[in-house]
Design a protein that fits this description.
This protein is of the alpha+beta class. It contains 10 helices and 8 strands. A 3-stranded antiparallel beta sheet has the order 3-2-5. The longest helix is centred in the last third of the chain and has 43 residues. The radius of gyration is 48 Å and the shape is rod-shaped. The N and C termini lie far apart (150 Å).
């Protein structure tokens, strides 16, 4: 009994009592009491989110609400009060096998609502438990048709697939599935260790490939630099002097260098020494006496 029908019932029952106290005819009290009972039973009120499925003599009469509505006692009856707000149902699949035979535990939440109160009341006995069972079955079917890597990396696709499958089954009952969200995908500890080692090995492999590419690029740069220094001794001399400066500027250390290295840093002196060696070799060749040849 809602507050309005309760107030009406109390008013008419109080009127019947007052009529009896005022020594009015008894039929007046009886009529007032019957009217109060009738109105108290007949006046119903549905909240904004509620719908009342009314049967008249066992057949569907109307879907009432929201607000006040009147029923005929004995003839009319509210068989079901339907809540049309969005509801959430938690489902889980324990030790479900994926397509690649990996046992996983998956938890998901289904957001749904009743869009057709008539069908939800007449087509199925308990639509709440039916939604839960359909969601759990669909979740297991989705896990069985998915590979573990896809299930872990692409949850949005799995959510959309579950929404479509569950919504297709519940639409016949007047229930709409708004969304499905997979909260957690748990895998065994030993498999987590194996996947962790695999991921580490993949990262090490990638790091070695990057390091090899870097070494190759550096080697190519050195080859190009060597060619440049070979064609320009002055550049090599400047680079050597810069290396010496960079080495000594921090701590002011004294560096001992071989004479050959110093000469290499002075391309002018090296060229002069090379020319002198060539001239000496030419002079020695010219000073050798020539032996006359005898004709046979």
């Amino acid at each position: 009994m809602n507050p309005i029908s309760a107030v009406v019932f109390i008013i008419f029952l109080g009127g019947a009592a007052l009529a009896r106290v005022a020594n009015m005819p008894i039929w007046i009290s009886v009529v007032l009491a019957l009217v109060g009972i009738f109105l108290g039973y007949s006046i119903k009120m549905a909240q904004q989110w509620e719908r009342a499925v009314v049967l008249r003599l066992g057949k569907l009469h109307a879907v009432k609400g929201p607000g006040l509505f009147i029923l005929i006692p004995i003839i009319d009856a509210v068989t079901t009060w339907i809540d049309q707000r969005i509801r959430t149902t938690e489902v889980n699949a324990e030790q479900a096998l994926t397509k690649d035979t990996v046992p996983v535990n998956v938890d998901a939440i289904v957001f749904w609502m009743v869009h057709d109160a008539e069908r939800a009341s007449l087509e199925i006995t308990d639509y709440v438990s039916a939604v839960q069972r359909v969601a759990q079955t669909s979740l297991r079917e989705m896990i069985g048709s998915s590979v573990l890597s896809e299930l872990l990396s692409d949850r949005k696709t799995a959510d959309a697939e579950l929404k479509e499958v569950i919504g297709a089954k519940t639409a016949e009952w007047g229930v709409t599935v708004n969304s499905v969200e997979i909260r957690d995908v748990a895998i065994p500890d030993n498999l987590q260790d194996a996947m962790s080692r695999q991921a580490q090995a993949e990262r090490e492999k990638q790091a070695r490939v990057i390091l090899g590419s870097a070494e190759e690029e550096v080697a190519q740069k050195f080859v190009n630099a060597a060619k440049l220094y070979a064609s320009s001794p002055e550049a090599l001399q400047l680079r050597a002097m810069n290396i010496i400066y960079e080495t000594t500027k921090e701590r002011g250390a004294t560096i001992l260098m071989p004479t050959s290295m110093v000469d290499a840093m002075n391309p002018g002196a090296a060229a002069f020494a090379l020319n002198m060696a060539k001239n000496d070799a030419a002079q020695q060749t010219s000073s050798v006496p020539q032996v006359p040849r005898k004709d046979a």
